Structure of UDP-glucose 4-epimerase:
Amino acid sequence: MRILVTGGAGYVGSFVVRRLLTEGHEVTVVDSLVNSLRPTAPDIRFHHVDVRDRTTLCDVITASRPEAVVHCAGLKSVGQSVELPWLYYDVNVAGTLNVLAAARAAETEHFVFSSSCSVYGSPQISPVGEDAPTLPQSPYASTKLAAEHAIEACAAAQDMTAVHLRYFNAAGASADGSHGELVTRYNTQILPLACMAALGAGPPLRVFGKDYPTRDGTAVRDYVHVEDLARAHVAALGAGGRRPTGTFNLGRGEGTSIGELLAALEHIAGQKIPVVEAPRRKGDPVQTWADTFAAEEGLKWTAQLDLADIVQSAWRWHSSPNGRLTAVG
């Protein structure tokens, strides 16, 4: 299948591209390289394009005529979105509209969107199903939900099928330690920051709140391996003429507290992680994890890698020169 991946040089997008190439698909990547590095795989058709550049984007997509688009491009820092909401709406919403316009011109048949569990805000009940109220509590989350709405409307108008993948906390790296998440100045993901703190390559880790009504007082999240997320994107493309549609939550379907995550990392690293306790952040949910029934039924997908796989692969990556020295953005 001819597939175009926006943001295909980014964290999740690059793993999606690797998986697609492994399965024999013809892959074109567009990426602005704002917070990523240029892909080097010889089988990738790469175009250095910002999704806000509608004219160039349309030229690239119509020339490649993809049967499907996997839209991973976007900014993802909650904190930065509060500081620069106009930038987030420009990239994540206007950029998505540009991708949709180009897909229409190219007569693309299927659209897969990398969305986020942040659209649920602070859910009162876990596990969180796809029918839970959407109450975004940051500009970032609002842009993800707005993009979903735009995709739904445009897909219906142009006879294109669409899938929204709302993933929970993406984490981990390749098993061989050769590929993982870059640490940028806007990175707020706890596992990369914890690894850098343990390595002495970053400041002590700030843990926001140790007084939650949870088993150890720290917030509970659903960490899902990026390799599993890549498999889900491929599953969302369909096979044998069957194309899934709709919205799917992606997670391991179980909660892990911040304390448990750090304990697992300390066990693997063989050392204590320097931690600084900080007050709770406004809008942070107490605990949240995914109800994965819809993904199991509609995508025939379940997460295969566990917390130990996630933590061990992240530690191996960040302990390598590439994982420590490729800070960009």
About this structure: Residues 172-222+253-325 form a domain with the UDP-galactose 4-epimerase; domain 1 fold (CATH 3.90.25.10). Residues 85-105 form the longest helix (21 residues). The chain has eleven helices and 13 strands. The mean pLDDT is 93.
